[in-house]
Structure formats: C-alpha cells, structure tokens
Amino acid sequence: MRITSKGQVTIPQEVREAAGFMPNTEVDFVVDGDLVFLVKATAAKARPTRGDRVVAALRSSRADFGGMSTDELMALLRGEP
C-alpha cells in the first residue's frame, strides 16, 4: 500500500468493516514513536452526524399543544367533535 502524492491512502474494506469505519466516520491519528494509529475520534471531537442534526432540529422545534393528549390532538386534526 502506498501513500498518494496528495497524502491519501485507501483503507482496505476488511479493515474498515472490522474497525467499524463507516463513510463520514471522524478519525484521529495517534503517533507513538515510529507507529501511527488510526482511531475513531472521541465523541467530543466528532462532528454531529446528519442524523444527530435532524434529531436536534426536531427536538428544538417541539410545538406546545396546550397539554392536549395524543388522542385529543388526533381528534382535532381529524375534525372529530
């Protein structure tokens, strides 16, 4: 395996699968003497995923339905008396 002129290297599929590296996984390089380790970034350093951003947006935009229960809200939406 060689490093390209752009400093890139392809991680073999078997290694990615074994390490759990999915597309867009944030990683860090850890240098220990002559050895370099590729590790998943810690949660604090990792950028939020698309799913994380969607969940955060949904949680921040919760509407207040005046204490109505789900059944009451559904009846209102369906036009039931």
Provide an overview of this structure.
There is one protein chain. The chain is an alpha+beta fold and 81 residues long. It has one domain. It is built from three helices and two strands; from the N terminus they run H-E-E-H-H. Strands 1-2 form a two-stranded antiparallel sheet. A hairpin with a 2-residue loop joins strand 1 and strand 2. The longest helix has 11 residues. The chain starts with 12 loop residues before the first helix and ends with a helix.
Task: List the keywords.
alpha+beta, single chain, 81 residues, two-stranded antiparallel sheet
Short overview:
This protein is an alpha+beta fold and 81 residues long. 33% of the residues lie in helices and 15% in strands. A hairpin with a 2-residue loop joins strand 1 (27-32) and strand 2.
Query: What's the arrangement of strands in the largest beta sheet?
Result: 1-2
Mean pLDDT: 85
Q: SS-based structural class?
A: alpha+beta
Task: Estimate percent helicity.
Answer: 25-40%
- Shape, principal axes of CA atoms: elongated
Radius of gyration: 23 Å
User: Which range does the strand content fall in?
Assistant: 5-15%
